[in-house]
Amino acid sequence: MGMCLPCLGGAADDVVVTPDPETRRRQLAEAAEKRQKETAYRGVKNPDAVEKKRKKQEEIEKQAVTSSVSGGGGLKWQVG
Fold it and tell me: 10 vs 6, 7, 13, 36, 75, CA distance in Å?
């Protein structure tokens, strides 16, 4: 019975204190964002350049949509 006491004495040192739920939630959210970034840019040497190209393409598409709607241009029907 005396053999178990030395084992229990060191058990208090091994206890890991868990952070409060808000801190834990924030840590999990940060880890999830990091994983998403890593998987999104897997195999890409320069992720910043890819992001710039994507934003530029979105801007061009947005301009094309607004110019076609506001300009009223395009094909017109003629009945003659």
Answer: 7, 6, 6, 40, 83
> In the numeric block, which tokens belong to residue 76?
């017109």
In this prediction the pTM is 0.41
**Inter-residue contact 68 to 74 (CB < 8 Å):** yes
Write down the residue that tokens 């990091």 correspond to: 34
- Other beta carbons less than 10 A from residue 67's beta carbon: 10
- pLDDT, tens digit only, all 80 positions of the chain: 555 555 555 555 667 788 899 999 999 999 999 999 888 878 888 888 988 999 999 999 998 888 766 555 567 788 87
Measured CA to CA, the distance from residue 12 to residue 33 in angstroms comes to 34
